[in-house]
Every structure is written in C-alpha cells, then in structure tokens.
Write a structure and sequence with these properties.
Blueprint lengths: L4 H11 L2 H10 L4 E2 H8 L3 H13 L4 E5 L2 E5 L5 H10 L7 H24 L8 H11 L5 E6 L5 H6 L3 E8 L2 H13 L5 E5 L12 E7 L8 H10 L1 E12 H8 L3 H11 L2 E11 L2 E10 L8
Parallel strand pairs: 4-5, 4-7, 5-6, 7-8
Antiparallel strand pairs: 1-3, 2-3, 8-10, 9-10
Helix pairs in contact: 3-4, 3-6, 6-9
Length: about 300
C-alpha cells in the first residue's frame, strides 16, 4: 500500500539522521532492547530513546513490551516494513560504520544467548527423523501463517519459518524467548515474530493461522484439552495442527494408550485427528500427530 504524501515525508524525516540510519540497519536484522542498542552504538540511553521514539512515531519500527523487557524491531509486515526496507536498500551495507555496528551486535547477541540459556531449561534438539516426518506431514501444501506454541529456543521456527508467509512463536518463558530471538537472528529469519503468551490465553483475537505446531508441551500441561481448544480457536477453518510429544510422557499424562488419548483430546478441542505417526529416535519414542480444524466448525473460546 502506497503512503500518503505527508506520511512519506514523515518517514523520510525520521530516517534521515546518521544515528537513526544505524538503528534501522540493526533492527532490520534483529530485535533489540534499548540497552543493547546503546551498547552497540556507544551512546547514552536518553539519546537513543529519543531516536527510537521518533522512528516509532513514524511507523518505521515497532515497540514490543515483554514482561521486564522492551524490544524494538522493524514491523513484521505492512507499510512500515516496506518503507524501512526501501530506505535501507539505498544504504551501502559495506560501510565501515555499519560493519562495526554489526560486529558489536554479534557480541551483544552472543552474550544474550549465553545468559538466556543459563536461565532457561535446555530445549532438546529435534532429531533428523522427527524433522523428516514433520516435513512429510506438511507436504507440499503451503504453510501460510504459522503459529508455534511453546516455541522454546525457536527450533520449529528455524525449521519451518522460511516456508511461512508469517511465523509467530509464543512462549510463557521470557528467558526462552530471549534465546529464541538470538537463534532466529542467526538463521536470518527476521520476518519471524516472538511473543510472550500463555497457551491457555493466546494473544490473538481471531482465527489467523493456517498451521499451528506444539512441541513437547501438552504432556506437561495441567489442562491439555483447554490448551488444544485455545490453539484450535486461532486456527483458520481447515487449519492444521502438528503435535510432537514423547510417547511415555503422553502415556503417563493420559493414563492409558496415548494414541487413543490424543484422538480424544483432539475431538474434545474441536479438531479432527487425521493420523498419528510413531517415530523412534536415539533419545526416545515420539508421536507426531496431525489434526485439522473442521472447515465449517465453530470452536468455543
């Protein structure tokens, strides 16, 4: 969508300043806090905050509060993202100042990842067998808008994000999200979004997603069916759900056969359980279930 004359002038005025160009170059690559931006630029917080306010007011960047942290980022979609990318296309990324900023940002993000990993629970790597089965289940059908519930360190977004038009990871742990932000940046997936949220009350007001993934979450959930129901609520009609979980953990949570139990959970949540795959790996026995929201079914909030 083209900007109005006044809006275009406002955006150009906001961007046309050396420090703000440096900030846009950083945020085009990763989400950063004001403290991290200050560390990269070597400037005071009041000065950087003024620049961030001007850029935010012009719609060139977004401000995202997450518990104790406030992140700044280029908008994941829309006119602001388009304008920022068009403006940055005129800037020589090989400029020595911008290169030095990127090197400093790498150090800042490495330290962020170290602290976040130390504070959060380790997220086991997806095995090659699980990844292959998951990709086979998704097949050639477009992913569209992707939601990853309990995103942890962002492994699912790294695997599927490049195939999605929009990709959002949600987790209740701020430490996990800080680690995920670093991993997503390293994978070059700056269109992916990360949000703090509870699986029982997802921060979306309408069915927005074509595919949802939930990995190793439901077997540990206190209320798995309400969690699934909430995920179904934000899926579009005929939207797909991919569930990955440990067989033994699910068996214990269900109190019986996990194949039957999963099917019952899906039905209670307003989802059709299309099929369940069993995958043996070096670190355990896993189930990968494919569910689908009925095209004409209303899902209870």
């Amino acid at each position: 969508m083209a900007s109005t004359f006044a809006d275009a002038v406002s955006k150009l005025r906001a961007a046309a300043e050396p420090t703000r160009v440096r900030i846009l170059a950083l945020l085009a690559r990763a989400e950063l806090t004001v403290g991290e931006i200050c560390e990269v630029l070597g400037q005071s917080q009041p000065r950087v905050s003024r620049h961030l306010k001007l850029l935010t007011d012009a719609g060139l960047i977004d401000r995202l509060r997450e518990r104790h942290w406030v992140y700044y980022r280029v908008p994941p979609m829309g006119a602001g993202r388009q304008a920022t990318h068009q403006f940055m296309a005129m800037v020589d990324t090989a400029d020595s100042v911008l290169q030095l900023d990127r090197h400093r940002m790498e150090r800042v993000l490495t330290e962020r990842a170290r602290r976040a990993a130390a504070a959060s629970e380790a997220d086991p790597q997806l095995s090659a067998q699980i990844e292959a089965t998951l990709l086979q289940e998704l097949g050639s059908e477009p992913i569209g808008a992707l939601l990853d519930v309990g995103t942890g360190s962002g492994q699912m977004l790294k695997l599927l994000g490049a195939r999605a038009v929009r990709a959002v990871g949600v987790d209740v742990s701020s430490d996990a999200l800080r680690l995920a932000r670093t991993n997503i940046y390293e994978a070059g997936l700056n269109h992916c979004e990360l949000q703090h949220g509870d699986m029982y009350e997802l921060p979306f007001g309408a069915p927005l997603f074509d595919v949802a993934t939930v990995g190793r979450v439901l077997s540990r959930a206190e209320r798995p069916v309400p969690g699934l129901t909430e995920i179904a609520r934000v899926l579009k009609p005929a939207g797909r759900l991919i569930l990955i979980d440990d067989f033994d953990s699910l068996s214990q949570a269900i109190g019986g056969n996990p194949l039957v139990g999963l099917s019952n959970w899906f039905t209670a949540a307003g989802l059709e359980c299309v099929r369940v795959n069993s995958v043996d790996t070096d670190n355990g026995h896993w189930l990968i279930a494919l569910g689908r929201r009925a095209a004409s079914q209303r899902v209870a909030a």
